[in-house]
């Protein structure tokens, strides 16, 4: 897991990218302007920056030059709509480590950040721990979070279900009939779980909602029954 700071002025894309990166196990800080980026940037904490170029209050290339001139040790990925060869050359010679067009698949962005994180000596992604007795979830680097019986069943189903766990599988694990089950109860359960972890340690619970499918636990997790 790495600490990523994302600079993107388009709200919908910013939200989608942040959710995707969190799903990859990264901790993400977002900014919409150069000024906001400089305000939230923590050079001792952030290892990788993902930057757009065309921004409301400046140009991403100028920002990169400013950071490089200050000697900041930060991996930089340009993610932009500017896709010409000259734009790429300018970005890379200006101090970026990678240059990715916004038309690229998100898997390329994920692989690029992973490669850059290794170069930046980022440690291996910490693992979460789910225990049955006592029922608790231990976030990496934080004390355990107590769980209800239903919390535990939901998280165990996610942890053991691979990349995609259907709503039906979770409902069945809870001992309910899927066709009689009110789906809003499951959504409420997930919101409560996310809030519980957030309030306990400040971390985002790495569970992604898969539209029209179900959910996915997006970080390494061990289960101790």
Looking at this protein, list some descriptive labels.
alpha/beta, four-stranded mixed sheet, five-stranded parallel sheet, 2 domains, Arc Repressor Mutant, subunit A, 8 helices, Rossmann fold, 40% helix, elongated, 225 residues
Plain-language structure description:
This protein starts with a strand and ends with a strand. It has a 5-stranded parallel sheet with strand order 2-1-3-6-7, with helices on both faces. The protein has 2 domains: 117 residues, 3-Layer(aba) Sandwich (Rossmann fold); 97 residues, Winged helix-like DNA-binding domain superfamily/Winged helix DNA-binding domain (Arc Repressor Mutant, subunit A). Strand 12 and strand 13 form a beta hairpin. The radius of gyration is 20 Å and the shape is elongated. It has 225 residues and is α/β, with parallel strands linked by helices. The chain has 8 helices and 14 strands.
Overview in brief:
The chain has about 220 residues and is an alpha/beta fold. It folds into 2 domains: about 120 residues, Response regulator (Rossmann fold, 3-Layer(aba) Sandwich); about 100 residues, Winged helix-like DNA-binding domain superfamily/Winged helix DNA-binding domain (Arc Repressor Mutant, subunit A).
The residue-averaged pLDDT reads: 88
Question: Which CATH-level-2 architecture of the largest domain?
Answer: 3-Layer(aba) Sandwich
Structural class, from helix and strand content?
A: alpha/beta
The CATH class assignment of the largest domain is: Alpha Beta
Unreliable residue stretches:
none
Characterize the biggest β-sheet: 5 strands, parallel
Our count of helices gives 8
Q: How many separate domains make up the residues?
A: 2
Rg over CA atoms: 20 Å
SSE order, one letter for each helix or strand: EHEHEEEHEHEHEEEHEHHEEE
Number of strands: 14
How much helix is in the residues? 40-55%
Gross geometry: elongated
């Amino acid at each position: 897991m790495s600490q990523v700071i994302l600079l993107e002025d388009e709200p919908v894309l910013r939200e989608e990218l942040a959710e995707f990166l969190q799903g990859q196990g990264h901790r993400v800080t977002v900014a919409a302007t150069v000024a906001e980026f400089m305000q939230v940037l923590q050079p001792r904490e952030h290892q990788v920056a993902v930057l757009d170029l065309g921004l409301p209050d400046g140009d991403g290339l100028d920002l990169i030059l400013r950071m490089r001139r200050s000697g900041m040790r930060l991996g930089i990925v340009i993610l932009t709509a500017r896709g010409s060869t000259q734009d790429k050359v300018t970005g890379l010679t200006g101090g970026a480590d990678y240059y990715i067009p916004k038309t690229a698949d998100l898997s390329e962005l994920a692989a690029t950040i992973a490669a850059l994180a290794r170069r930046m000596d980022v440690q291996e992604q910490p693992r979460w721990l789910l225990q049955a007795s006592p029922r608790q979830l231990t976030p990496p680097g934080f004390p355990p979070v107590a769980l209800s019986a239903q919390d535990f069943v939901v998280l165990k189903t996610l942890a053991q279900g691979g990349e995609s766990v259907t709503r039906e599988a979770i409902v069945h694990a809870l001992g309910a009939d899927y066709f009689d089950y009110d789906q809003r109860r499951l959504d409420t359960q997930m919101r409560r779980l996310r809030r519980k972890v957030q309030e306990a340690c400040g971390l985002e619970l790495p569970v992604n909602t898969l539209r029209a499918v179900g959910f996915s636990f997006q970080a390494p997790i061990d289960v101790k029954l």
